[in-house]
């Protein structure tokens, strides 16, 4: 009965949000779906995406939190002339939930996730300046070599790391890219912009660029990817990131064994503190080298079994040396049982860094594209072997028109309240999202 009431509230939030959108003159979904040629030409080369979303989260020891959201996103890449290009990803969004009163200054946001310009003198060199989403990694569930993932999430919409990689706050950087024959080299600089609290550059009302999150330290980075013809199905990338007193080195490799079997791995080592010491500010800030690893295999079901169906299965092992080890689990369980805030600070830091809280975890992904007409189905799950806790998420994506689709997502956390994932407080969640793109 409680879940039924929560679902009704959940749908009510979504409907109420549309009403609020009218009050504040925010974009709402159009009454008709056909896209006119004039509208398409007006927006070209960019796309305008409207999103209506409703979600409900059931807590372990609390009532459900229901949320309704509406947003409009302008994104894409275009050419200013033969040499200059622009990259844009900006979003206007608002939301309501059943736990607080709606306040425009707090609940309307403009997120400038990317705004960058690039200049190419020829096919060999390209220079890029501005805010851009610099992504690294070949794994699915955890990307050790993805330097700038920390504190980049805009809002919670998915437990899938692959989704978060594609839609997050970019970093302001200057980057050079050299492409020649069988070699790719990129290098750049991310400045510390010293954004102050409650300002436009950080977290001011409505428009806050969040540069205090993405550009809070100077960093130099370089990445090299050779691809000689003799390597055939082998791909290798070597990368390095340098922050003051925290050098790091990483590598990504993937190998196609057959048409339907790919092995991959990424490794990263950095001078840093472990999660416990950094979160609690202990051990006088002493740092050492800590390793991270994500290795896996993706198997695509062959035509002899699945005919023309597009079905794949990925399995991965994740290792985070800076995370909690087995010998610390008894102390962790005791801290959670006693509501010790230190445990919450450690877990929050792992979430901010988007890295595993435990030293080891297993990840799996099952994807079936076009499983029914043009509908896609995916399932991910993560398990911590140390205590058996984890989460699963299932997503169904269904197109309802060439310019619109609906996405239904559900997730479940499992494990006792004093386990790695059970202590997160979440139990179940459901989300329904409608997309319309011009």
From TrEMBL:
The organism's place on the tree of life at top rank: Bacteria
Signal peptide: 1-21
Protein name: DUF5723 domain-containing protein
UniProt keyword list: Signal
Organism: Jejubacter calystegiae
